[in-house]
Amino acid sequence: MAASSAYLLHNLLTRRRDRSNNTHALKPLFFFMPTTLALATTLLILLYISSTSNLFFIHPNHLKSTHPINHEIPKIPLSFSPPNFVGKIANFSEMEGGGVLTGAENRSNFELHVGSHGSGMYINNKELFHDRDIFLKNYKDMNRTLKIFIYPHRKDDPFANILLPVDSEPSGNYASESYFKKVLSSSHFVTTDPSTADLFFLPFSIARLRHDPRVGIDGIQDFVRDYIFNVSRKYPYWNRSGGADHFYVACHSIGRSAMEKVARVKINAIQIVCSSSYYISSYVAHKDASLPQIWPREGDPPNLARERSKLAFFAGSVNSPVREKLLQVWKNDSEISVHFGHLSTSYSEELLTSKFCLHVKGFEVNTARIGDALYNGCVPVIIANHYDLPFQDIINWNSFSIVIATLDIPLLKKILQGTSFDEFSILRDNVLKARGHFQWHLSPVDYDAFYMVMYELWVRRSSTRVLA
Question: Confidence band (pLDDT; 50, 70, 90) for 366?
Answer without folding.
Answer: confident
